[in-house]
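Collaboration report, partner site 2.

Our partner group contributed sequences for two proteins of shared interest, and the home lab folded both. The records are reproduced in the order in which they were received, starting with the first partner submission.
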Amino acid sequence: MPELLLELFSEEIPARMQARGAEDLCRLVSEALAPIAAGPPLGFHGPRRIGLVMEVAPRAETPPREERGPRLSAPEAAIEGFLRKHGASREALRRQGDFWVLTRPGAVIEAPALIASALPGLLWSFPWPKSMRWGESAFTWVRPLRRILCLLDGKVVPFALARGGDAAHGLASGDLTEGHRLHAPGPFAVTSAADHAERLRAGHVVRDAAERMAMIREGIAALAAAQGLEVVPDEGLLAEVAGLVEWPVPLIGRIDAAFMDLPEEVLRTSMRVNQRYFALRYPDGRPAPCFAMVANISARDGGAALVAGNERVLRARLADARFFWDQDRRQRLEDLLPRLEGMIFHARLGTQGQRVLRLARLAGHIAPLVGADRSLAERAGLLCKADLASGMVGEFPELQGIMGGHYARHQGEDPQVAAAIAEHYRPLGPADALPGGPVAAAVALADKLDQLAGFFAIGERPTGSGDPFALRRAALGIIRIVREGGLRLPLSDVLAEAYLGYPQASGAEAGFGTALAEEWLRRHPAPSGRHPPMVAAFAAAVADFVLERLRVQLRAEGARHDVVAASIAGDDDILRILARAEALCRLLESETGAALLAAYRRARSILEIENRRDGPHEGAPDPALFAAAEEQALAEALTQAEAAAQAALAVEDFAAAMAALAALRRPLDAFFDRVLVNDPGLRRNRLRLLSRVTAAISAVADLSRIEG
């Protein structure tokens, strides 16, 4: 098959845009060349180029197509006009129903022609996140585009970007590319994808990003190991640096001993954010007074001058960090709190100063629920955002929370308070660690619950296309803290408390959360509890959002969606939901469980029909009206099963509760086999018995949601 090689050579592309640019190029070219595509494209990207290699067919034949013409009864002039439009004769027409139909023969499309016609428009509309114009042309690219290399089986596919009166800088396809800016300046011609990769390597350019990453990873690991050190893993930095260099040359530099008493996070962040250096450590985890860097050239002196220059730059960076570290420790965290009044959390949700008061209150409410000391949780909640006003976090926002923990330890706060301040943002993702203790868990939950309540109250809910305030991440963080920490948290209750922490909730601002509460009440009965109905409804709506994230998580873990739905219905205790789902799954997998489900459905179906006639049929059945032995046996079995299930539910032993209900299988089967429910004199009593059966089962799990 012919081989297509396409390379778009430009000025330096931001590292974060390269991989996505190559992916978009592969996708768009695949779509544009679908008639001749013979396989998926292989993309490549680097600091100054994106491109692809793919196999294509030499030509493609489009299938014949039918064009429907005028009706059979149409005037002759209409038929002649149709024939002229398509360049066809009267003999080419055939009848199809009430219309004349013209069959158009397929056309042969040559690969070079299709490529040349498709690529200019594709490049004009390429979806870079940010683009720029240069010169007088309206053509845009992420950075000025310098060359277009386009070869099909070694031959140039000629096309130009000029259109209308826009010359597009005279850019046209050719067979030229360029190597390393310093080691191999100037253009050279290539003849194939293999020749392209080989000539680039000879010109000190590694075309494949994965290979550059491997060279960096292995190179710095080898240099570190030679000094008895290891590299602190950082895949994000590795990918970024691979997008900054075409010819990676790992080097090791040293950190002045005077800076090694700075917190490890400060050292790493300063090196990573400002200089793109890799941190090194001793095998026991202690930070090493060294760093790894990656040059883009092979220097004649082995990189000695490069290392020395970067050491000087790092020395200045760490001197700045030292200044902030020393200055910040001269004041206590509570002294920084007044500055939070000038920091906006959100225009409609107030300042960070107002927020820490809410967090202290909410963390204190949550503390006894998670086994934390209330006073420590309130103290940590009050101070957890204070470091936002510190010099270090102003310089390195990535260190918020972490620096607060260091400053709290320095001023002698309780270790649990310091840890809670440092960890209250956790978890930041599925792989991130959880807050480490009860106080930290209380503050982390308060932070996320306050965030959810506030943004849902002002209508800033996530959509399918966006979640600008990371509310899904907050919900998933709550689930992880509760689930992995084995915590009992009444979700709706704590969300109501979070909502009531906002002054707008008292009625000062009309519409604060009321639209969401009213929307929820249109679909559900008014909730009961200690909070006002509108507050409880709002909290239940936000809890539904969190539980939907739990539902998605359980489905991803392989749980049946109907079992999850049956377990979640009417409950907001995550641990209880998980226990119920596990027990229900085991029950349904058994023969007894399947039979019990069938009997429950039969009883429920009868009740739905009869309730529409003259229901509801609630209340206790009269034992004196039990005329058949089977209904007497069912009533006795139900009394025993209810007592056993309620005792098991009291200690949340769902497996035992469902085992107790499973004992109803045989008496239910016998009842349906031998008892006429709609006996005129006994109908109402028997329907009440069935209603009692379904209520007993529903108290454990909502089997109406089980499918199949």
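Second partner submission, folded after the first:
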Amino acid sequence: MDSTPHVPRPRALTRVALVGAGYIAEFHLEILASTPGVALLAVCDSDLSRAQAAARHYKIPHAVASLEELPALGVELVHLTVPPSLHVPLARQALGLGLGVFLEKPLALAASDARELVAQAGELNLPLAVNHNNVFHPSFVRLTERLKAGEIGKLQHVRVCLSVPLRQLDAGDYTHWMFRAPGHIVFEQATHPLSQIEHLVGSVQEVETTLLGTRELHPGQTFHERWLIAGRGERGTVELYMAFGQPFTRSTIEVLGSDGSLEADLAADTLSVERKTQALDFWNTFLAGTGRARSLARDSRRGLWNWSLFTLGLGPRRDAFFVGMRDSIRAFHAALHAKTSPPGSGEEATRVADWCDAVASTVSMEPADTPQVPDPGPAREGEVVLTGATGFIGRQVVQRLLKEGQPVTAITRRLHSLPPEILEPALDGRLRLFEATLDDEPGLLAALDGARVCLHLATGGGDDWETVQEAMVQRSRRLAELCADAKVQRFIYVSSVAALYAGPDAGVSEIDDSYPTDPRPEARPIYARGKIAAEQTLREFGRRSAMEMVIARPGVVMGAGTPLQHSGLGLWVRDNHCVGWGQGEHPLPLVWVQDVADGLARAAMHEGSDLSGRAFNLCARTSLGARAVVEAMAQATGRDLHFHPRSLFLSQTMEVGKWIVKRLGGRRAPFPAYRDLKSRALAPPFRSETAREVLGWMPAEDTPSLLEHLVDVYAEEPEDA
């Protein structure tokens, strides 16, 4: 008899690459790094620098810019985390290269395309599946388990409510894919509840869609913000209410059965059940209410316990979204190794696409036409070139310059979904428009050729210092170098008062234009640190260049187009609860966005070289503190807004307490910088003497005018009958 001990065969590794290094990719990368049987070999993104940043952060060996490079690296399967419009072409390409595909939802924007992809994968014998992570949401999993156990009898009806905020709507950023056509929101957001609906009632039989609310984002760009869908599936009927851009989040799914009901609150990760008992009606009602209360209390305690364990480093991360993502991704790879049909299979995802098609059948899936912008032609005399022209401040600067008859050129990353302030003057020839990014040197040089002034409003960002340093500091420096090469006379960098130290112990009675940047940038968050570093490197370049270098620092900029929850007022722990950076009584350096635009336009048009090498603030002299602004907002909007004063010392004590808990849990975290917290208070008053005395700048400063421009714009206009 053979006495050799049995040694299990090592599990084969699936060699994986992630394609598309955007926001959702971070979850895939974190989960894949700890998923058994997976070797993460590469990150692929058309923006190679973004792929390199992700690969560096997650210690992945390769970063590439095209799918064609992946097979040579040994990759056999890709996770596609790209915008939905790229799902079909990139999935086809990946399958054609012999790569299996796991996509973020949806599989396709039409069920016919979904079926073609499934057929292609079948012919090539390659895996194809979709990450329907909401099917793995913990409370939904518990709901389906109890439904299968027969607790509420036979399923009859499913009722879903999805009412959520959309950050892009609040910020007025309508360039996201989901806004490009009226039906896109279905495939971007509704796929989540529809995947759950398909899981419960099967394939779609009939659907009726009613639009309850519509708004025009830009001329010709329609967005349907409220929907009511009634439908029938194989195993029951369905009712789905969707509302987007809502201040209060509600995400629930209720299943009505022949003998009871189950309701999952996906936002709170709770589940309640109501069943019939043998008791009389009055006692049955009591038992039903107390039973729901016990279920909700139990789930709430579990959520608090899981959060506490994770925070203390005694347990894994278990928030509902992360768990749903983790379990969906791991279930796919487990099925792959077991050679069984994975969840979110092509067939299942096609049925979800059928539901999406049916819901969106009454609205257009065609993006609004991108108008043909005239060729920009050569620069005109005195041309002012703007980066960040489509942003909150940039749009107003363009309008202000054009009003003065100033020739203006705008550099934009994309030509679709342009705001009317940019599109209209571009179409009639008043505004030259160039499509380029800040790392597109040929495109930038073409836009800068013959220009007199460059006004640099675009700003980069990131989650780590290396990314911010590249996006905010190095690209700004390189743009200045290109301007010098193009013989641009003046370079204006739009920084922020966040680059200054403005705590109560600043040691000055007021902050004037000569006040230096914070000498301790390491004690500031990466945004402020990036602005400080950008100012310093641009000043250093300006001293060696014949080009005039000017730095502008707007204060707390408010007005139509910025979210109501401005961080300059305090820490918004909820969208209606603001914790102050202090007591909220001292005047803030508030300024109306149109006044900022006026100051920047004046700097761009200014004759003479007396601005060279100088920095200037753009802050109004106000008597309004954070508390007064939030209270005025509550009155103007009718919302339940609250300002909570809190001493800086107490806030710091609480931050240190959080830090201690994280460290006890073994999590890396920088010690909270009291200096940064104090600087957020913006305690000393700000002077803007250069803008006033040299540029003739006169911002709105009396309280009624400021409240009209900064606060009253958030009041809802009465709806037409």
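Feedback sent to the partner group on the second submission included the following. Residues 281-311 form the longest helix (31 residues). The chain has three domains: 14-134, 139-310+348-360, 384-564+587-624+684-701.
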